[in-house]
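#struct-pred

JT: dropping the chains for the assembly here, can someone run the whole complex?
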Amino acid sequence: MAAEKAEMDALKKECDGLRAQIEAARKAVNDGSMSAAASGVASVGRVQLKLRKTLKGHLAKIYAMHWSADSRQMVSASQDGKLLIWDCFTGNKLVAVPLKSAWVMSVAFAPSGNLVASGGLDNICTVYNIKAASPKTLRELDAHTGYLSCCRFLSDTEILTASGDTTCCLWDLETGKQKVIFTNHIGDCMSLALSPDMNTFISGACDSLAKLWDLREGACKQTFSGHTSDINAISFFQSGNAIITGSDDCQCKMYDLRSDQEVICYQDASLNAGVTSLALSSSGRLIFAGYDDFNCHIWDSLKGEKVGVLSGHDNRVSCTGVPDDGMGVCTGSWDSFLKLWN
Amino acid sequence: MEEWDIPQMKREVESLQYQLAINREKSSITVTELVKWIEGCVCEDPFLNPELMRANPWVEKGKCVIL
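RK: done, full complex below.
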């Protein structure tokens, strides 16, 4: 027992030493700042968007939404036990998918538009073929030992999941089996985002850390700290070199992957609500962040200033999404409505 | 982490060694390039270039919509 404790203590000391070395390496390259780099950039001014549509149909809290790659269809998930697929140009509902388990927390559209996936407190990621005459369950991915917080398709044959069991997983949809398991977080994984080049992905967790992973090797390449509470939302900039996180600590942060550190923090003394979700405009200049205060606040990502707000929901904004064509933003709420703004 | 056993701790050490070894670039360069990249995309961002929002897919064009 004493020998084991001695070995444990030695290993802990080695970990502390390594973390200190990583911090030192970060300091050594920190010779610039966002405020300096963005000082010559013109302000975007006030961003005032109009509410274009309110999508009514769900009967309970909406927990998640995801745009189709066609920028026209969108899928939403509610704890009324349904996924709804919407045509956002007309506001019509196209498909309703009844769920086995109503406790859904995440939903995703495959890039092909053929499949959607959802999961939640059932710990299972269920994949549906929505092109069939009526929605057909294609696969039930059942191996996580905690809730499914987020899922994202790479293609019709691969999907990534994040779970309350602290792991993320890459699945093969043809076999229904796990291909790679990503373990390193020490808290529930809450969200994930794929890199534009699909070689890596990022995860945010309740250990207040964001991690960058090699998709094929399974290794954690970088860890980003700074938040003081659960990271609920995470997204890549289209350049692939920077990420944004949103947390229960009421802040959003931008981390630069190349210098391996935080470069700017988005916080406001008057904002005392946790960040639930976020989405970036196509250039990345604007951040749409959904908060517990029922609003979606708009931030200038370079200047770190609040430049607008989307008000209208009667309860927490739980999900936010900008379609690939960048033509607007969708907010979903516990008030059971989805709103489209541009 | 308090409940970790020795193999888990060893994996944490390995992970930290791997993470320490990455190449870090100077932020004076990387952040400047990031700002340039974003600025370069602003003209194609419908939220920031009103020209692109002229044909707004989310606005009714007339009173009736042909489905």
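JT: nice. Chain A touches chain B through 66 residues (CB under 8 Å). Residues 2-29 of chain A form the longest helix (28 residues).
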